[in-house]
Amino acid sequence: MTYILHRSLNTALPTVVGAEDNHLIDDAGRRYLNVCGGVAVSCLGHDNAKVRAAIAAQLDKVAFAHTSFFTNAPAEALAEFLVKRAPQGYFKRIRKICDAYGVLLIADEVMRGMGRTGTLFALEQEGIAADITTLAKGLGAGYQPIAAVMAAEKLVRAVLVD
Prior knowledge:
Blueprint: E1 16-20, E2 23-26, E3 31-33, H1 49-61, H2 73-85, H3 90-101, E4 106-108, E5 132-135, E6 148-151, H4 153-159
Parallel strand pairs: 4-5
Antiparallel strand pairs: 1-2, 2-3, 5-6
């Protein structure tokens, strides 16, 4: 019996009680290779001693401070690492490859769009646009769940029926 409204109401889900490496373990001892990654892409595996130690060390200092008002050393170090190693012109190069081979460039701006990267759309920073762009989360600013798909005019014209 569950009081949770799961995705399927006709299936009893296994109860996870532990994890090891990339496996989940249920209350009957069965192991499952966890290949779903999570909604925002979690790729750290389970029971990683180094990751747990880093999380515990941060929790001992401060568990949460809203990013509208504060920053912290780990976030700043991560941002510096990413910026210094980001391939310049990466998306511009992807756009050229897509154009050369007639492939649509689809941009998932759900997590990075609506100003989160300094411009309305992240791809704007490289001076390009996608053929199809998905939007959500920031589109409703947390007040209303909303999502959208934008398509380039050339695609819309191609599927219009007269």
